[in-house]
Amino acid sequence: MLSTILLPLVTIAGRIQDDFNCTYVVTSGALAGNVVYSPLATSCTDTLPAESCEVLFKGSSEGPVVPDSIDSSRPVNCYSFQNGPIIENQKKMSIMSCPSYCGYCCQTKAFQCANPNPDNLDCHSITPQACMDPEQKPMLAKNCPAKCGLCDYHPEGVEPTDGPAPNPNSSNENKGNGSGEKKNCKYAPDKAKDCKVWHSRGFCQNSHYTTEYKKKYCSTTCKICI
């Protein structure tokens, strides 16, 4: 997760005045010395439609966060009320519903994992621009996922298992395995949006993933009874 920047405001130009999450200090060029929003601040998708985010969080003259701009400021309603302190519940609501609009993408689940920190790569030195580079994404997702917000990114389209290794002696009776529907069986709604893509790549039939894991994310697509 990008940590909060705590620097004396008298040394920093720009319009960001309160919540410094998902920001960085420009160190070179015409904007040197300014605190601006990182490209990672808006690198996710809002849960709510844009018009809903605007109704909920837009201030009198504020708009959505714009990365790398000294003229952009986070709408106060994303984290507080006018001239008030940061309100954590208000902030949590904006992170859950409109993280891109409010510039809080770096606070979302995609950043909530650990970096492997390989010896040959310093994750702290990775720039936001590198994180956004499509050619570098697979490598950074493997080595520096928390730095780049790639905890949920998997090049093959299938998440790695977070459960125990499958038991070869366990029975799949009435549980389903993606090969067909069972009688008197109810399926839970799919939790993952890419279940159909995963299924086409063999996810439902792959014994590397436990039945419970498949049921948790893709019960309907994999035809696994609840």
Give a quick set of tags describing it.
226 residues; mainly alpha; two-stranded antiparallel ribbon; 2 strands
Describe, in plain words, how this protein is organized in 3D.
The structure is a single chain. The chain has helices at residues 50-57, 88-97, 128-131, 137-143, 145-148, 195-200, 211-222; strands spanning 23-25, 35-37. It has a two-stranded antiparallel ribbon. The protein is globular, with a radius of gyration of 21 Å. The chain is mainly alpha-helical.
State the share of residues found in helices, binned by percent: 10-25%
For the CA atoms, what is the radius of gyration? 21 Å
> Order of strands across the biggest sheet?
1-2
Outline type: globular
Largest sheet: 2 strands, antiparallel
Mean pLDDT: 75
Poorly predicted regions: 1-16, 157-181
Structural class: mainly alpha
Number of domains: 3
* Element-level helix/strand string: EEHHHHHHH
Give the number of helices. 7
β-strand percent reads under 5%
Give the distance, in angstroms, between the N- and C-terminal Cα atoms. 35 Å
Task: Please provide the count of β strands.
Answer: 2
